[in-house]
Amino acid sequence: MSWQQAKLSHASQAGPAAIYPHWHRRAYTILGLLIASVGVVALATTIGSVQIPFFTTCRVLFSQLPLVDIAPTWPSTTETIILEIRLPRIILAGLVGAALAIAGATYQGLFRNPLADPYLIGVAQGASLGAVIGFLLPFDWPGMWFGVIPLLAFTGALFSVAIVYNLARVGKTLPVTTLILAGVALGALWGSIVSYLIITSGEKMHGIIFWLMGSFSLSQWSEAKVVLPYVVVGVAIILLHGRSLNVMQLDEEQAQQLGINVERLKLILLAAATLITAAAVCFVGTIGFVGIIIPHAVRLIWGPDYRFLLPLSALSGAIFLILADLVARTALAPTEIPIGVITAICGAPFFLYLLRRKKRAVFF
Amino acid sequence: MIKLELQNIWLAYSGKVVVKDVTFQVMPGEMVGLIGPNGCGKSTIIKAISRVISPYSGRIFVDGKDVSKMPWGDLARLLGVVPQMPLLPSAFTAFEVVLMGRNPHLGLLQYEGARDLAITWQAMERTATQSLAERRVGELSGGEIQRIVIARVLAQEPKSILLDEPTANLDISHQVVILDLIKNLCLENNLAVVIALHDLNLASQYCDRLVLINNGQVHDQGTPREVINSRNIKEVYGAEGCVYAHPVNGLPAVLLKSGSNKHVEVKDTTEGDIV
After folding, report:
1. Domain coverage including residue B190
2. Residue B100's domain is classified under what CATH number?
3. Do B128 and B108 fall within a single domain?
């Protein structure tokens, strides 16, 4: 009896409990990754142009928690560096990473296509077009960043996903080739319109170009506070629909026959994923590949069940982007590497590997 | 008590009428076969009952309730569907796919409980798929996938089951395995079963009643003995069929005579005339 047969017969004797993991077992993985992400935040806060000992960092961070009373034994400049300079940047990187990764996982699940990613399908470019139009509006008032620009970015992104989805669909399926072609073409179109707008934007040009490059270098608490509600609401909506996304992996007809209201589900999830993509793009510009690498890596390690894939992707995306930003600001310090360079160095080879592997497609 | 009822159904695909005024009923524990030539509207009728497409006229009742007014979840608890060529996500295990049958019974944030796992496991036992439970469905053969999908429908615990040519891609021994399974499930669970079949002999052997469809219309319906006869076969398929009694159970069976299709003959003679 081979090893595999032995394992199978063991399972059939033991019954379903031996085959199907109880949710506790999977919840521990989520908890573990949550603790890891807190550790990564602390680590990233320690490292920088001014070296702060790890334990000092931890104590400064802990002292900010409610009900914790630690007498400050550190200089106030240390506290300023940690709390006002590094932490907002790290939190924003984490939020954006989580947003892009879970949005990528959602698009992949909805389109049943392993290469769907906010950047490859043109959604992020649509969001940046919307945001650039917002920058160029001839008026300026304080609420701009909280409402108008995110709303325009969201509209642009939603518009793009609708166009790409309808262009790329062949009957009931969404083939990789048409999806990528439609996404890349539309992304290029939006990109060229953005370029044109920049050229003609006059004195605002410098700011827009800087924003488009994708960077966390100007992050402040105010930005993190604006992104946070969008990401929390979007992620919460998506997390509620994990099991429905599993059933959607069959196909739309079978999903309907298993009790899913497919059209409503598509609308809700596309809106939620697009909302968080737009919020992320609004504040940090374009950062590619997070939405494609992270969900696939999670799938390879922890399996395809969306109820766990989605939260694990969000946490892994946060960890990945915090670490990528750490490399971006420290590797060539004091020069900053654009974070898109780091994510592309990690992401592009992985993407090519996926394209090759798609032929067998055993893990999607 | 009628489980499934179609009342004067008219269906159209992109403006073209494909099903005209179809009416039939299915009782619990009864297996009704939809037969007819390719493209006659069998699959379309199956899709209409499962609400994938809506009729522009007529009504469909499942368990006495109008299908068009039912939420998707309610319908899925009453009606299970085995599609013709089910696409399954290759990375999921067979057990996970069968477990998806529990979806209509679970709330938004509910995780499958011990009862759901037990029902799933039992459904796999009845379809002889327990040994496949941990395999990824991407590695399974056509017959195994068909059994997995039937297990999924059982896990759904429906009152009625629709099957669209479940044996189309299987060799003859697997055809018998699948149809025996469906027949037993139908009798044991008192299910109302509608099955589209293109093989007249299998339809005759397994179904309690047959609905013969031609050009989207009901040509004839009744027991296999009433429906399968050489006149109907000539009228619907345009073929010269030789209908005889099955040597074991006496049910009608069909043998075809080669070169007997009248369409082919007509075409040949006209060509001959031109020459």
Report:
1. 4-228
2. 3.40.50.300
3. yes
Mean pLDDT on A275-304: 85
Shortest CB distance from A362 goes to which of B72, B91, B121?
Answer: B91
Alpha carbons within 13 A on the beta-carbon side of B98: 35
- Total domains in chain B come to 2
Residue in the block written with tokens 């179904």: B207
Q: Which residues of A touch B95 (CB under 8 A)?
A: 16, 19-20
From A355's Cα to the closest Cα of chain B, the distance in A is 17
Q: What band does B266 get if pLDDT is binned at 50, 70 and 90?
A: very low
Q: Do the Cβ atoms of A259 and B104 come within 8 Å? A: yes
Q: What is the ipTM of this complex?
A: 0.85
Tokens 């009931």 sit at which residue? Answer: A172
Domain boundary assignment for chain A: 86-357
Q: Is residue A65 exposed (0-12), middle (13-18) or buried (19+ Cβ within 10 Å)?
A: exposed
Cβ–Cβ gap B106/A305 under 8 Å: no
What lies within 8 Å, CB to CB, of A128 at 6+ separation is A153, A156, A190, A194, A212, A281, A285, A286
Residues of A in contact with B90 (CB under 8 A): 361-362, 364
B223: Cβ contacts below 8 Å, ≥ 6 apart: B208, B209, B210
Looking at the fold, whether B24 and B129 belong to one and the same domain comes out as: yes
In words, the CATH class of domain A86-357 is mainly alpha
pTM: 0.85
**Is residue B174 located within the same domain as residue B275?**
no
Q: Which tokens is A16 given? A: 């379903």
Chain A contact for B106 (CB, 8 A cutoff): yes
Nearest to B134 among A19, A254, A303 (CB): A19
The secondary structure of B214-275, three-state, reads ECCEEEEEECHHHHCCHHHHHHHHCCCEEEEECCCCCCEEEEECCCCCHHHHHHHHHHHHHC
Q: Is B51 on the interface with A (CB under 8 A)?
A: yes
Q: Which chain B residue's Cα is nearest to A239?
A: B109
Segments of A32-81 assigned E as strands: none
Residues B240, B222 share a domain: no
Among chain B residues, the shortest Cα distance to A264 is held by: B72
Identify residue B158 by its one-letter amino acid code.
Answer: P
pLDDT per residue over A138-160, tens digit each? 776 666 666 788 888 889 998 99
Instruction: Considering only CA atoms, give the Rg of chain A.
Output: 22
